[in-house]
Amino acid sequence: MAKIFVLDTNVLLYDAQAFAAFQDNQVIIPFVVLGELDEKKNRQDEVGKNARAVIRGLDDLRQKNNLADGVVNEYGGLVRVLTSNDGLDFVTKSVDEVDNAIIELTKDLHDKNPDVEVILVTKDINVRVKCDALKLRCEDYLKHRLVTDADAMYKGVQKIMLPTTNINKFFKDGELDIPSDILKSCEFFPNQFIVAKDIAGTSQSALARYVKRGLPAKKLVAPVEAFGLRPRNAEQKFAFELLFDENIDLVTLVGAAGTGKTLLAVAAGVHQVLEEQKYTKLVIMRPLIPMGKDIGYLPGTVDEKMAPWIAPIMDNLKFLFSAGTGKKERETRSENDLLQMYFEKDIIEVEALTFIRGRSISNAFIIIDEAQNLSAHELKTIVTRVGEHTKIVLTGDIEQIDNAYVDAVSNGLTYTVEKFKDYELAGHITLIKGERSELASLAAKIL
Which residues contact 224 (CB under 8 A, 6 or more apart)? Predict the structure, then answer.
């Protein structure tokens, strides 16, 4: 028998097509949700875009039949807009009152349909707790949830034990033969890294990359440094391997604060644009999502408004340029003068993700920082902007999310990692060890 799904506002603001994502079941949109959508529709971000898309989608359905009676969608499901029993749907409500009205409608449907499973779908944890107290079934929206929790996400590294002869052969020939029993028992993906330990218990170990199914793992070939920056641990070496491989178009780097994900990406990008000239420009973008309470509108020009948002990227660039390595011109100019020159020549661009829609960026090294704050749809919009001979790098910490509509497993970065792990043009590594400072590493561990 078909189920009844009641959708909370946050589900529709997360995915504008959510009301069509429940196959042939009945989908209920509470009347109070329309009011919340109306409040969000003028926002100039993904939330506002989704609110407008939902309203347009419902308007299209409305022309086929009355929404109170229900309109059959393309999958055979019935979409309805219903009011709650308290009669206050037409009155402006607080957040708690809206939540309670949605829960009340769910309970009313549950009581009136004892033979049908009624499920409230919400991304609000507190609403799920309230429903549990009332013995109502309530679930998260799972469309983009490809893993059960953050620990289950693909890490990009496989640790195995090998005979001494295999490891010795690796150091001699540069190829790591993996026995068939290990290949059967462990799942290997393209561009996955191998940490092979000696089964005899010696200190020997091998670091290799499993480039392609059916071929032996290869020795790492990335440069030992980029723009004066050297990898400090195995995961950072793996990151360089992906960042410098011309055959990999999409790189995802995930790690906690201080693991070096952004600095490594920026160093590799600057090196390949300025030193090796593989790409004509370096483009670095960040989403405009603040940590903590928003400080409101900022005064000044566009550049002045953007300054606080791009400050972390500028810190990384200044750190690299202040190293005084590379071409002679960096020995005769200050890092600020050099950066300003590259900005004026459009060789380096640092801007907000707001400006990427409509662009097609070719022959560039692109870095999307703080990608964990993006939805799956937003990242699809970004990656589809990539033109010919362009490499795109996504960096982020899935444990530090400031977007209220995504979490550690439903955010666009996690979704992208899981979706692309089977493809040879993509590579991923999770950075583990903090390298910013001893204090930063300790703080990340104990606070």
Answer: 230, 231
User: Strands of 205-210's sheet, edge to edge?
Assistant: 157-162, 192-198, 205-210, 217-219, 175-176
Eight-state DSSP code of residue 408 = T
Q: How many CA atoms lie within 13 A of 128 on its CB side?
A: 10
pTM of the complete model = 0.84
What integer pLDDT is reported at residue 77 of this predicted model? 87
Average pLDDT over all residues of the chain: 87
Q: Which residues pair with 72 in a beta bridge?
A: 78
Please, which pLDDT band fits residue 326 given cuts at 50, 70 and 90?
A: very low
Picking from 214, 150, 53, the residue whose alpha carbon sits closest to that of residue 396 is 150
**The token pair that represents 272 in the structure block:** 């390949």
For residues 386 and 366, is the Cβ–Cβ distance under 8 A? Answer: yes
* Tokens of residue 393, six digits: 């790098």
Over residues 411-425, the pLDDT tens digits come to: 999 999 999 999 999
Tokens of 362: 């070719």
**With contact defined as beta carbons under 8 Å apart, do 398 and 372 qualify?**
yes
State the amino acid at position 223 in one-letter form. Answer: P
Rounded CA separation 129/139 (Å)? 10
DSSP at 185: H
Query: Between 302-321 and 261-270, two packed helices, what is the crossing angle to 10 degrees?
Result: 80
- For residue 323, give the 3-state DSSP assignment: coil
CB 245 within 8 A of CB 369: no
Q: Where are the beta strands (DSSP E) in 154-299?
A: 157-162, 175-176, 192-198, 205-210, 217-219, 250-255, 281-286
Q: Which CA distances in Å does 280 have to 227, 337, 359, 429, 442?
A: 17, 20, 16, 26, 39
Cα–Cα dist 298/380, whole Å? 29
Within 13 Å and on the Cβ side, how many CA atoms surround 318?
10
Range 227-241 average pLDDT: 94
- Buried-exposed string 21-51: b where 16+ CB fall within 10 A, e elsewhere: bbeebbbbbbbbbbbbbeebbeeeebbebbb
C-beta of residue 19 within 8 angstroms of C-beta of residue 81: no
Q: What is the mean predicted confidence (pLDDT) over 253-278?
A: 94
Query: How does residue 29 score in pLDDT terms, banded at 50, 70 and 90?
Result: very high
From the list 256, 257, 252, the residue with the least C-alpha distance to 239 is: 252
Residue pair 261/255 in contact (Cβ under 8 Å)? The answer is yes
Residues 13, 19, 22: CA angle, nearest 5 degrees: 125
- Token digits of residue 418: 């899981």
Give the per-residue pLDDT at 328: 46
pLDDT reported for residue 306 = 64
Residues 6+ apart with CB under 8 A from 168: 204
Amino acid at 2: A
